[in-house]
Amino acid sequence: MEKPHTVFRNHYSERIGFLCRTINLLEDIYEDSECRDLYVSMEQLESNRVVIEPIDCRYEVEESIDVFNKYYDIEEIEVGVGDTSFYSLYEYVIDYYRNTLHYKMLEYSGKTRNSGFEYYMGVLFDGSAFIVEGWSNRVVIPGVKQCLSAHTHPSPYPIPSRIDLRSISRQLVDRGLAHIIVAYSSSLVIYRVKPLTINDLELLKEIEGLDPPEVLRIISKTDSIRIRYI
Fold first, then answer.
1. Tens-digit pLDDT profile for residues 72-114
2. Which of the listed residues 86, 110, 128 is the one where a domain comes to its end?
3. N or C: which end of the chain has fewer CB within 10 A?
4. CA-CA distance, 145 to 123, in Å (whole number)?
5. How far out from the chain centre does Cα 135 lie?
6. Residue 175, by phi and psi: left (phi above 0), alpha (psi -120 to 50) or beta?
7. Do the beta carbons of residue 34 and residue 73 sit within 8 Å?
């Protein structure tokens, strides 16, 4: 049976998509130019302009920008003066989601509590987004790459299932940023704060069969993945 779904695009979804593309581009520049850090102008970022200051880079970042930006479509990016490490952008996106689109998922969480049906929201890298209705205790996730996603949970506490964790792992491996499990008591964010390493990928594969609380305990101790309640 076909379930209801909504496709939308607004300032909030476009901003999240832009920030996710920016993070992935900066990761590529950082690794390709072998930098100690990249500073970003947060004032310019508010206007969707990316101004970066290279910190101790082995190679010129301009070359990396030319090579990689064609994959991310950042219209305005230049080398200049920054004030904040690009590593802070991961938390910045989570805060931005919490202050904007999270209210939508809280509304759907109320519907889940009444009906048992789960709801799933995905924000794509191009800034478009969708919400789909699932069934009792499950929802079918569209097979498209997402930079940020969230789903409602029928229980009071946002404890992911094994299926949830497998889906979240795939999203992080595909360079998505975060997934939020929304319950009516609180919401749990599982997100990355740097590119995943080969060791991270091997770890995610090794812990797939473990109980979810143990998985959360293990990944919370890694350098690349964090969990946070909002």
1. 999 999 999 999 999 999 999 999 999 999 999 999 999 999 9
2. 86
3. N
4. 9
5. 24
6. left
7. no
